[in-house]
Fold:
Amino acid sequence: MGNIIYVVGFGPGDKMYLTGQAKDAIENSDVVVGYSLYAELIKKIYPDKVYITTGMKQEIERCQICINEALAGKTVALVCSGDAGVYGMASPLLEIMENEEVEVVVVAGITAALSGAAGLGAPINHDFCLISLSDLLTPWESIEKRLRAAVEGDFAIVLYNPSSHKRKDYLMRACEIMMDAGASKDRICGYVENIGRVGEKKEILTLEKLKSTEVNMFTTVFIGNSLTYEKNGRMITKRGYK
Amino acid sequence: MGNIIYVVGFGPGDKMYLTGQAKDAIENSDVVVGYSLYAELIKKIYPDKVYITTGMKQEIERCQICINEALAGKTVALVCSGDAGVYGMASPLLEIMENEEVEVVVVAGITAALSGAAGLGAPINHDFCLISLSDLLTPWESIEKRLRAAVEGDFAIVLYNPSSHKRKDYLMRACEIMMDAGASKDRICGYVENIGRVGEKKEILTLEKLKSTEVNMFTTVFIGNSLTYEKNGRMITKRGYK
Structure:
């Protein structure tokens, strides 16, 4: 073994969301590399592994550490919350990887769209879009264009990164854009904060009420399509139109 | 225990894709209910459980069986391939559920968009849409509208149910619509057949080549966004535009 980097999606954080493949990858690794905040979640499950952690926005440094460790003969687990390939580390690693002697294996995990949906009922049980509201790497114009296209296509929509300290009003702006694009103010929406973790909080509400709701950066937001409805406290998007 | 229905997404089929939560749900159930073809995959992992299986398109009958078993005091696992809430059984069950004494717990699983993406590299590492090409429950006009909106929003796109015996030309029609909506014929695409199962097959190719490719019903198709590229045999969608 060695010379391998597993890019591992570990889901919301609790051990119960790990797949067998993710467990094997972490257990077989000599070193676990990750963003410090999320690596703490894995440390609780695997306290005896060797960890190398870096801060937020240091994605490229993190990838370079993995490559160096793998070139030194190690088996490396680069861990990501959620899925490895949905706003995850699979893409930055593969972008900078130039060493044919290092094998990269992407290990899928439960992304927040899936774990959050399970908590709310069945909000994305038909065609849907994932859109991140973070404009760190994407111009706001592109985000706005996608929000409009998603409403025009009558997709259910999942919003990642709906808020941060610097972007407190982004969810409100997104709601306004979706209404302007034709989504009714009564559209059924929902959000889940701290999915599967201590302090989990969820609510089903209208788009209008969502617009004036402040959520934090650990929240995933769901916008129904035109036929989504609430029943017995669950958000339900039908599998079809017929 | 009893009076519980777990709607369990078990991923592509192999044991390694099961989460701990899915394993617990199946192991703690008195009876496992599912579509016969996919229940076979779970039988290989858990040969000693009690199974009740039904044929394709008998979703409502399957849900009713679960409700009856749960009302009789059983703990039931309603199993779905992929995720329980992405074109899965969470929605039909919650739609017909009228019995407050039965608790429904949705257990998220690895949907084909995630497992297929892991096999191809990082094709959906930024905003993306899932669209099913099946017009059994959705009029083709809605599918076409979504394909156009997805291209106009420059989303990466994942196509589920790209083909069947009766719909051999649907992928070709979808490719034509996406090109007509502005996707370049050189757009990087990929597909994975039998993800994580015997006979897995994958290919990265242009949208033009995809248009003339015949895939089967066990295939998941990925269309890149305008910046998706191929490198060292991997399909990569960057995390942002900057």
